[in-house]
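[User] I wish I could look at a protein chain and see how it folds. I have put the entry right below:
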Amino acid sequence: MRVRKFLLENEKGQQFDMNNYRESCFLTAPTGLGYSNKSEFGQIGNTFIEILRKTERKDIGGIVNFKSYDKCKKFIDFIEQSNELKFTYMVPFDNGYKTYYRDVIVQDFQKTERQARVLSCPIIFNALSLWYEENTVIHTIEPLEDEIRWNFRWDSKFSDYNTRSLSYINQGHIEAPILVEISGYVQNPEIDMYIDGEIYQSVPLTVEINQYEKLLYGTKENKFYIKKQKADGTTESLFNLDVIDFYNDNVIRIPKNRSCEIRLTADNEILNAKVTILTYYKAV
């Protein structure tokens, strides 16, 4: 029988397995995996009309069980050495596992005494986001082989070398932000969204990204950015008048249940690019 699985992941991609009692820990009695709404109503005579509905934040609770104090210490160290945490939830659907994430912080961790060879510690994670999938397409042309490779997560298509495009229907519960990486050399890149075959939004950038550099673009809520990653790994914000039009709508998010296409174009060939669509769900 397939069972659901839980992990913690930090901003470096490092994971702490919460399904392995022998090597790490085992999470039991999880709570807060669903969702709830808060509504406000107006009254007309004896009829009540919902005038506002918003999703309430859900905390994730449970018991983390450790084999030893050493394992518990490793868990605490992992949390404290991480700047960002994602609660990873692997759900066993009929057609296989699907992985969902929720941005969290640890609100409360109660270290208990060891009983019957088990150290069982209640924990509460404050949720900072809804559940989301990370759907990624990677386009790479090898310098010698000149071939196209991608991580095939949904129906996608690529056209000529100066244009990279993918089609996507957002079946999540809210608009889906995107994350884009374009490796240099590339001159004056542009990110466009088409809906039902018609141009809906365009983000042109007046910038040169040199070899070994990357253009980074993200529209996640409270984390919107346009920046350049330099060859040494440091980043430089491109949010200035020389690069973008401040009167333009520069935040692309994919609407629900529409036939959408993301296109990447530039003055020259785009040889390496990655697009990630974050599909959000109130509950999974």
In short: Helices lie at 69-80.
